[in-house]
Amino acid sequence: MTRGPGGGDGRTERGGCADDRDIIARIIHADRYVVESIPECSLLSAPPAREKPLLTMREEFAAACVLYSRGMELAHGLFEEKRDLFPRDELAAWAVDTTESLMRNKAALLSLCKLRCGGDYLCSHSVNAAVLGAAFAMHLGVNRVFLPDFAAAGFLHDVGKLFVPEHILRYPGGLSPSQMEEMQAHVLKGQEFLRFWDDVSPIVLDGELDHHECHDGTGYPYGKSEGEISFTGRLLAVVDMYDAMSSTRGYRRQVTPFRALGFMYNERDSHFAPGYPQAFIRLMGVYPPGSFVRLSDGSLALVLEADAHAGLRPLVMRVLDREGRSCASDVIALGEREDLSVSGTLWKLPARLRRDAEERIGRI
Question: Residue 126: which CATH number?
Fold first, then answer.
């Protein structure tokens, strides 16, 4: 690990990452990946996803910021203020707007999932799971009519934690067996809560019930395996673990998005349904939008978008020079530069740097 720029708050992952990076790079460049047991064509009758976004990231970013803030307000309302009066119609409208933003330029909202990490984990995790869930469903070819349901499923997948004692949710260390039992009970409590809602989508119910089930049968609450797990549950299992690992939580060490993807790839034959981690990596890229990387010239950059044809060379925006000083917001397509590459990934960066990077995106 090396000291981070501008005061040493950031850390760089170098040694030990090469194997993960090579593995993930092979996935990115593979001609095919297999996702098993995808449901009937009622969900998957959409045309192939567009190769080129309708808007640039800069053009979509302001709308994405408003949407992310709206999502956080909804999450705070659900988990902290008025769960009995939760505005379900507002969630439905937000899910539609979120899906439309992702279809215009998915990188804008995806980057905010990392740029705005920190704060209340339960709320940010709900918003991130909604964004990632809809984006992943879109990537897998789900009909656009159903995409808002996947956003809602992500948003509500942990709703049962409303009924878990606060001291367990915020416990700063490993949970005891009895505490873990109470924590795991959030799934069935969430099912009970959602079934009181009128016309709740089966996609939402499936995602809430199955997102902790594992392909090898070691998950909970029912120990389902393989084909017993719903499509939404398989999808959200990937989304849930990725965001949980790469977010700040009081009781578990945060890792870089890159490292989270590497771990998930290693769990591809046990925790996840075959092909799902690989598909998610192709969606996010080796270095996901919103993550920070150190370039080979020593400068620090924010990843804007993955390059589908050059997985190790994303589109980035330089934010600090090699001395840790603020610099011009150069946008660099690493896939077009033979003299520049990613040399490391960073985490534990100051919140002010994330805020500054977010402001810069609107000006590029």
Answer: 1.10.3210.10
- Residue span of the structural domain in which 126 resides: 33-284
Question: CB neighbours of 63 closer than 8 A, spacing ≥ 6?
Answer: 101, 104, 108
My answer on whether 42 and 56 are in the same domain is yes
Report the number of distinct structural domains present in the chain: 2
Per-residue pLDDT for the chain (364 aa), expressed as one digit of tens each? 333 333 334 555 543 344 566 666 666 666 555 554 444 334 544 444 445 789 999 999 999 999 999 999 999 999 886 667 789 999 999 999 999 999 999 999 999 999 998 778 999 999 999 999 999 999 999 999 999 999 999 999 999 999 999 889 888 778 899 999 999 999 999 999 999 888 899 999 999 999 999 999 999 999 999 999 999 999 999 999 999 999 877 556 778 888 899 999 998 889 999 999 999 999 999 999 999 999 999 999 999 998 877 888 999 999 999 998 988 889 999 999 999 999 998 877 788 899 999 999 988 8
Same domain (yes/no): 196, 254: yes
Q: Are residues 294 and 173 in the same domain?
A: no
Both 212 and 343 in one domain: the answer is no
**79 and 221 co-located in one domain:** yes
State the DSSP string of 51-101: SS-SS-HHHHHHHHHHHHHHHHHHHHIIIII-GGG--HHHHHHHHHHHHHH
Answer for the pair 96, 51: CB distance below 8 angstroms, yes or no.
no
- Specify whether 97 is located in the same domain as 206: yes
Are 273 and 291 within one domain?
Answer: no
Closest CA to 215 of 235, 244, 201: 235
